[in-house]
What does this fold into?
Amino acid sequence: MTDDDYAQDYLDWCAEDDPDGAALLDELHDAFGRYVVFPSAEAHDATVLWCAATHGQPAWEHAPRLAVISPQKRCGKSRLMDVAEAVCHNVLITVNASVAAVVRSITAEDPPTLMVDEADTLFGSKRAAENNEDVRGILNAGHQRNRPYVRWDITTRSREKCPTFAMAMLASVGDLPDTIMDRAVIVRMRRRGPGETVAPFRTRRDAPDLRALRKRLHAWIRPHIDALSAAVPRLPVEDCAADTWEPMIAVADVAGSHWPGRARQACKAMTASEPDEDGHVSIQLIADLCAVWPANDEYAFTTTLLPRLHQLDESPWAEWGRKREPLKARGLAALLKPYRVRSKTVRVGGETGKGYVRADLHDLRTRYVTSVTASQEGEKPDLTSDDECDLFVSDSFSQNVTWSDQPKQAFCDAVTDVSYSVRKSAPEHLFDDPSPNGQAHDYRRPGCVCTGQPRPCYYCQLVASKQGDQL
It folds into this structure.
C-alpha cells in the first residue's frame, strides 16, 4: 500500500465514527475522574488522549511529553501517575534511573512509555540540573524520531547508537526545564478544594480493571498503525505545539463522536494557558520596551528608557540581578544582544547619545511577543487604523486609569489586565456627554466596557483621534 492508500484508510476509518473507540475513551475518562480531580475539563481530556496515544507510538513522528506540575506536594500528581501507569502501553516507571539504563530500555520498533516521578529531584536545583544534564538531553531528543544516543563501546571498539524516541510523563513540584516544558502537554495540578472528593485508589483492588481497559485500548489502536502513520489531522496550533498535539488529535479523530471537538478545544485552551514567553525574561523586556517607548519617536535614548522600565510595577527591572539593583545600560544591552539588537548613537530633539531604534524592537515584537492567545481570538477591536496595536504609547499621557472590571484588550500584551495607560491625543470635547438627541461627539466604540467610565479606553481614544482629525 502507498501512503495515499494509508491516508484514505485513515479517513474512511474516521468517517465510520467508530463507536468502540469513543466508548473506550469515555470509559477511560470516567476512570480518571473517579480517582483524580483535574484543574480543568480540558486537562482531563488531554490526559485521556495522551494515555490512549501511548498505544500508537510506532505511528507517531513525535512523542509528546505529559508534564504533571504542582506548586506544592499533595496535589494528586502521584495518584494521576498511578492510574496512567495502569492504562498506558508498556510503562517503564522510575524515580532516578541512570541514562544508560533508560536508553537501553527503549526499543526502536515499539517504544515503552517512560514515567518519571519526583522529577524535581533531577532538575529542582542548579547542582541537580547540572548532574542530570544527560537525562535532560535524552528527554529532549526523545521527542522526535531518529535522534539516537551515541556512545563509544570500549569492549567492542565500535560506535553504539541507542534509540531515544518514547512518550514520557514527568511529575514535578515546580516547573521543569524550559526545553522539556516546550515539548509537553502541561497539566497544572492543585489540591482538592472543599466538596471535591475522589475514590481511594488501591493497586491490588483497582488496577486489574484498569489493566483490562489497557488491553482493549491496545486492541483498538494497533490494527491501524499504518493508517495513523500517514494521517495528517487538522490542527488548531502550529510549530512545536502541533508536533506535540498531533498524536492525541489523531486518536480523537479515530474515536469520532464528540472526541474530535473536545480534543481541539483542549488543545487551544491548554496552549493558550501556557504562553510562549513564560520564563523568558528577554521577551518580557521586549514587550516592556514597546510599552514605554516614546510615541512617534523613531529613536530613544537609553537614559530615557531605563527609568521608565524601573517604574513598571510587575516587571523585574527595578530589582535586577543578584544584587537586586535597577537594570543598567550594560544589562539592557546584554539581554538584547542575542537578538542582534545593539545600542547606537542616535539623535533626539537636537541631542545625541546612546539609544535604540524603534524599528528594531518592532521587528522583535512581531516575531517573539505573542500578541493574541487562543482565548482572545475574535476580540480584536474595530479600529480606523490599519495597525493591530500601537504598543509604543506616548510619554505625554502619564496617567494610569485602573478599572477593576475591565478585561484585557486583545492585541496589546504590554498593558496589564487592570491598569491602562491612556494617551491624551484626542480632543476632550469628543467625549462630551451625549445630548438628549444623541448627536454629541462621543466616539466610544459601541458596547465598549469603558462606557460610563470617567475617561475612555485607549482604543476609543485612538478612534476619536483619527476621526477628530476629520471634523
